[in-house]
Fold this sequence. Notes:
By secondary structure, the protein is α/β, with parallel strands linked by helices. The protein has 2 domains: 4-146 and 305-347, Rossmann fold (3-Layer(aba) Sandwich), CATH 3.40.50; 148-301 and 357-367, Rossmann fold, CATH 3.40.50.460. It is built from 13 helices and 15 strands. Helix 1 packs parallel to helix 12. The radius of gyration is 23 Å and the shape is globular. The model has no long low-confidence stretch (mean pLDDT 95). It binds 6-O-phosphono-beta-D-fructofuranose (F6P).
Amino acid sequence: MSKFIGILTAGGDSPGLNAAMRGVGKTLLGYYGMNIVGFRDGFRGLMENRTTPLDRSTLSGILTIGGTILGTSRDKPHKMPVGGKMLNMLDAIVDNYRDNHLDCLVCIGGGGTQKNSLRLKEMGLNVITLPKTIDNDVAGTDSTFGFDTALGIATEAIDRLHSTAHSHHRIIVVEVMGHRAGWLALGAGIAGGADVVLIPEIAYDVESVAAAIRARARSGSPFSIVAIAEGAISQQDLAAIAEARTVDKKSAKAKDGRKVDDEEADAAEMIYADRTLRLAKRLEALTGLEARVTILGHVQRGGAPSAGDRLLATRLGTACADLIAKGTYGVMVAAKGEGSRPVKLEDVAGKVKTVPLNHSWIGSARRVGTNFGD
Ligand code: F6P
């Protein structure tokens, strides 16, 4: 009997989502003769039963398009804002899955989506996931689609920043996305020849960064590019955060029971804010060079997917359809070498693939003289 499959995209958008959806959809429809339906805006659309037909014509022409034709959201099934409250909507989601007579739900997303999909699996639903994110931080897979496109965009930005930094003898600090893992800053930093690369995995010492920049200036290069991941943090800030964590923000009490005011309670949060701007100011003071900041932001997630991401998303999407046809559920379709492999959601959910400190990219970067601030 023909199966009926639901598809949704969840979490931050990333290039390659449509290519993956097309890969799954065309294979299910054309190769296996199954039927599919799309849910709008991630798990929220599933909870609100907002469906949209997916057929050969809707799946046609989307391979090259950025974003997601289904829309997305960061809403979580077990903690969703509804009517001004955060509610557990898992039961409503299960009801909609059953009312739509689904045999399986395909969830395309990053780390959060893997966790949320596991929650649905634990409610007895057949789910299968695909790993996307420009951060490349999903555990269990060699890579995620979206990363290659963002890497190209960030690298091009660093290339362009080089000529202006060089002309003005300036430091340019370029902030690249990646809160928990530094793959994007590291990859683009290497590919763009950044002089300093700062990633969440290596707490940096501002003095060490400044010393590297001063050494470059002394050797005849009075300009530097510092590629910093959003989540990179200095040793100095880490120490300040450890101090500030003595404040319990909810009760506005210090650990010693002393009552603190809002200002003091907010101090811990503020240490995280404006880190890149503060770094640039500090480097100016420590090197005597002018510094400027460029925050690449969402431009890294927008636009058409690269050829590499189209290929990866299509490979994983079609492999996902093959697994559905075999009745293999409860897994993420991971990239493995030239092929793919199913990995149990339990082995992926809640884990983050950070950059190992002995990773070859770090080794190569150090050999060509890149400073990591350590
Ligand atoms: O998860 C991908 C990502 O682009 C991160 O690199 C970034 O920190 C975050 O999303 C930004 O999220 P939002 O678009 O919700 O602000």
